[in-house]
Amino acid sequence: MFHLHVAPDGDDSWPGSLERPFATLERARSAAREAGGDVVVLLRGGTHELARPLELTEADSGVVYQVYGYGTPAREEAVLSGGRTITGWHERDGVWAAEVGDLETRQLHVDGRRAVRAGIPGLPGSSPAATATGYVTDSAEPLGWRSPRDVEFVHRGVYPWTEARLGVADVSRDGGLTAITMARPAFDWAAELYNSTWDGVTSAGPGLPTRIENDPSFLREPGTFVLDRSRPGDHVLRYLPRPGEDPARTRVVAPVLETLLRVAGARGTAFLGLVFADATWLRPSRPEGFVHYHGSGYYEGGGVEVAVLGEGASVTYPAASVTIPACVVFEDTVDAVVEGCRFTRLGASGLGVSGGEGLTVRGCDFDTLSAGAVVVSGSRGTVIEDNLVRGIGLEYSGSPGISIMGASGCVVAHNEIGDVPHCGITAGPGEGTRILNNRTAGTMQVLADGGGIYLSGPQGDSHGNGALVRGNVIEDTRTPYNFGLYTDYGASWVTVEGNVVARADNTAVLHVGPPLENVVYRGNFWDADPLGHDDPPSGVTYEGNVTIKDEHELNAATAAIRARAGRRRRD
Description:
6% of the residues lie in helices and 43% in strands. The protein has a 21-stranded parallel beta sheet that branches. A twelve-stranded parallel beta sheet has the order 3-6-26-34-37-40-43-46-49-51-53-55, with no helix packed on it.
């Protein structure tokens, strides 16, 4: 085994030894390719600032990137950062300001803590209203927005499971009113997508914003920031400090890169004990905005479809959608391993897996993410086990903790997921998905119509290659209108057995549209009967399930299931 070393205080002209390490991962990558064979790149502690994403290909197969001391008490902390430290602050009227050139970002971290973009709770005025091009209001306050083109409207709950972000193009006087023109094409796409009927009542368009963000006039709460881009190429970052913060001592980092690591076509690569931090995602700040529909998917035109959910009920959905990107990406890899890593302070999803086979994500922590933790699409044999997911979906609230779509033989086991705005684990159409012995708590904290575990669409063509949901513990599913364990939208060939659901708005639901087919609910324990349990539809087998309303009795009866669920201890 050949070892190469990289340290923040190294030098790329050195040989990469322990005593004389390289300075950059790109230099280590080149040396590993030259060495051939089994190579371990050891990262010394500290922040490894990336000037550009680290790109690995088939030529990097078999290389291990590992923090120095991994698996020992002497383990160091090596951070791969796509951020830029902000200096040169000036203070005026209690607000810090720094000229940052052409810097673009949507996030800011202050001494490792996520700062929030400054905002106000909705459109001011006595009776604001939507128009064909935006909004009007009788308030003159928007005329005082100093950088209108930087302002972003947040529309939470357009559908109960949806949160959109749409930019402003202009603010002007219109007689005695203030007219707000929204950026296109985002506003047009939102008008096209957000149309529904429920109980005979039709709703069209995104409606009024529930929050408005990113103008200097919104800096009212300590710990908030704005990026003022009103002067092209001469942007100004403004931050309202919290008590005790000092520009001379406080470290402020703005994420700049959108991708930290991309591995494409490699075989047998491994990443052990690393911290991936400080990345952003800039697309929602463009005129296309973020026209969200469900989960990790968003709409960028191309037509819509209408789903009839019952008499007097319908919803419009995208004919095609795009997935929120990840800041660490694996594409068409074989037998890759990501173990003991942390994904934090990222402006999109943490880890994205597309295509390939045999990737394992084990024992990782995911926190402080704008979107989801792990997004898997079209892969085979992916294993996601013993991970901790918390504090995700901070900017894109529909994002699930772990999302599986179009995968074959994917196993999601022994993960702990909590403090998330929507679903904990989701599985769309696929084959042979196994969701085993996970623990979710504190899911569905922001949006509605989801669950701790959510499945939709066909999961195979028989119970032999269908989905298995077994041994999971699902507790404290928040918000009204949720289902702790949710098989939805034509789910088929699913076996749901031996799970525990407690403290949800609804434990499960058996009647959905399109209807469930070849779905088995067997031997589950809950504190309330699922909706439709007394009259299961023809496509559902409901047998041997137990409802125990007393919490202590339920806990006692399910002690063995609880003991096996969640993250296993790692030595």
